[in-house]
């Protein structure tokens, strides 16, 4: 019978019941506190590594509380070692013993003792027929990472490749030591004779392993281990990158100028009569009933003749083309100001660690809604042994969106106030006058004069937007920026790249023209969500 319950606060409660109420069933007052349960402890009597000869038998002693039952198992490569029992019960003094028979061959393993889920203890066991040696470990590291905490493992007959692949989890059953200083790395009780795998690591950041054979019992032998940086974990990484945007000015100016003309031709096709252009633009935003009525007016009345007189001299295409050179000059000047960036986020994929995605957030001063919907674009990246991160990918770029941005800047500079091309065209065309001419010719179902004026402005804006989107392609076939980044990465304790400092080269391709781009590349891990 176990009396362990007497040490866990049960007996004091029974005595309190008796003293306070005898046998009359009185309850314990609320102000009588429960005695806290006694903490279960468990330890090996001698915690130092147990050195045994092959097949040697020995009694292993554990210390715990009275009557506690202790489970014991062997971890690691215990070979044919055996225990007299898988569990033992402590005596009245809290002492438990178990008989261990060593394996018939040299090895190392661990005895693990446990009392339920309350307490546990471990004892390293080393077996050798030729004796034991102390290893004085000397590490060699030529990397740039900041290393501080160290650990070493020795595995009899171990595979260095398997040990390094398993880090940062230490090999089960190995002789093990931790140290805050590299000079303090020593491991005793190492078996003499068999082949050993001697491994050292600094947390997750760096590791190395050598094969060694100890030959001098009862001595100290030096073992030199070269540590290499462990590879970055790219699958879980995220980096916000910023690329200095300094394109070749001549070819970049040509791209923007040609893209401005492409925008103009798509939005307001050259040679299209202004009357047809405006009425067609309005029809693109009106309801079905209103479109039917407007088409009837165009066929049966003189509304187109009246509008032709009203719009005489208006040339939306020519007006936009006239801004192309100014847009190119504005783009080149902005790129030369050293404050232009291509910015976006690289997001790693745990399923494909070498294939992140890149999502654009700003391009050469154009950001937000002006960029249009941005999809995650497949990129590639890799890390060299010296923590250089190499990134490459093809980013689809709608240069007509760049052109629209700089056409609006050029126009605003001309008129002296901030404005946009569609707003200026609406004023030149005089949308209220267009609406009045239409209602004078006849009614449009469901759309009065104010509605028609608004449709004129909205239709012109829609035509402009069609030109802005003309350069879009999901695969970069219309316009693209080829990106190649190389930079030194700062690596976290979790082996994630958290910062990047380097440079990049690129080629902007659009409008049958190429513009080389280069500049400084930086990156920073986004703040935790």
Structure report:
The protein is α+β, with helices and mostly antiparallel strands. It is 27% helix and 34% strand. It is built from 12 helices and 26 strands. It has helices at residues 10-21, 160-166, 249-267, 274-283, 288-300, 303-310, 316-321, 324-335, 399-415, 421-429, 431-441, 449-468; strands spanning 43-44, 50-52, 57-63, 69-76, 82-83, 87-89, 95-101, 107-115, 119-127, 132-141, 150-156, 175-179, 186-191, 196-202, 206-212, 220-229, 238-244, 246-247, 341-347, 357-363, 366-367, 377-383, 388-396, 479-491, 497-510, 513-524. The strands form 4 sheets. Strands 17-19-20-22-23-24-25-26 form an 8-stranded antiparallel beta barrel. Strands 12-11-14-15-16-10-13 form a 7-stranded mixed β-sheet. A hairpin with a 3-residue loop joins β14 and β15. α10 (421-429) crosses α12 (449-468). It is elongated.
Q: How many structurally independent domains?
A: 4
Structure annotation, total helices: 12
Structural class: alpha+beta
**If strands are numbered along the chain, what order do they take across the biggest sheet?**
17-19-20-22-23-24-25-26
Global mean pLDDT: 91
Question: Approximately how much beta-strand content do the residues carry?
Answer: 25-35%
| Helix residue percentage | 25-40%
What global shape is seen?
A: elongated
| Structural Rg | 40 Å
The unreliable regions are: 1-26
The number of distinct β-strands equals 26
Spatial separation of the terminal alpha carbons: 56 Å
The largest pleated sheet is described as: 8 strands, antiparallel, barrel
